[in-house]
């Protein structure tokens, strides 16, 4: 079970270099499991026992199954995660030719660690919008091959490199794609047109626009002397998306369950398809009873907001509160913050801890040091949007927001097990 889940995660990460591809991969798995795709522009006909999913912007997804138990009496079991990760996005007019090298200008998306992007074999993926036969269409593309690199400056030319230096995102992060001759020009949109033809057999009249991100081509892997770790890109937060999907697909048909995987968490979630937008509420209002019954159903529901937590790093243990240092392979972490950066309260934390104990899953706690700022996630945003009770949890991780993060190889099984139990739980608090 552990090895199979970990390999499934590795394959999921490889198929999901961008939020668009992650959503596509999730949708494919759901359809294979009998989930029916709904279009927000159409009238919906849902029924008890039905399984459905809907996407927005091609980068966010909500899947739900309607159980046999009455919704008004039993509420919803929701698991929330996000599809996006910090990365380098290509600018609208990106072409740069410097010293005979063709480079692309990039914009930093989210709170990325810059240094790990240097000296990596990078590829490019995302969504391209184009004109074909007088109509505007979009397709996902993925170059897959390593087509770019951001070389480091040699230590001989930067003697202070190991002393720490500020990396300038404008001048130091543009990747190199090729060498060019004197006077030669390259058009990035021509390159995208060639990729559309190669990947989809489409000869576009014009490339109109795009949302494209660079990513590391090195696959995720189970590593360590005893195979104790999973190393890979985008563990924050595709790991939680994958665990939530596996748990939903493994759950029974007794109770109604929802999986929410939204985009733009790393930049505040404020978008039409983000957690701070109307997506979830609009979907729920089309499925749940109206008016008074809607509020009563939501108040009988519970959201598990699953996003990675900071594991205590052996080289930087002083960055943690001494009594709250989650360990990799120590099980899911309940995240708590008195200033509501996390939405956990004593009742929701108690329920999740009870669920872990009942299913023999180890559980840990995280509170940030009182002299440090605390990050946040979709938990407080979703709780304030629809009024649902929430517990913020996640798996402990090293190097969060790096191009290659590290998690425990046992923890995915723990998380999937407790989320499966949550979807099948008869009694919510």
From TrEMBL:
Cofactor(s) annotated in UniProt: Zn(2+)
As recorded in UniProt, its EC number(s) are 3.4.11.-
Keywords carried by this UniProt record: Aminopeptidase, Hydrolase, Metal-binding, Metalloprotease, Protease, Zinc
Please state what class of enzyme this protein is. Answer: hydrolase
Give GO MF terms, alphabetically: aminopeptidase activity
A Pfam family recorded for this sequence: Peptidase_M18
Q: Which residues bind Zn(2+)?
A: 82, 156, 401
HAMAP family noted in UniProt: Aminopeptidase_M18_2
What family is this?
Belongs to the peptidase M18 family.
Name-wise, this protein is: Probable M18 family aminopeptidase 2
Encoding gene (name): apeB
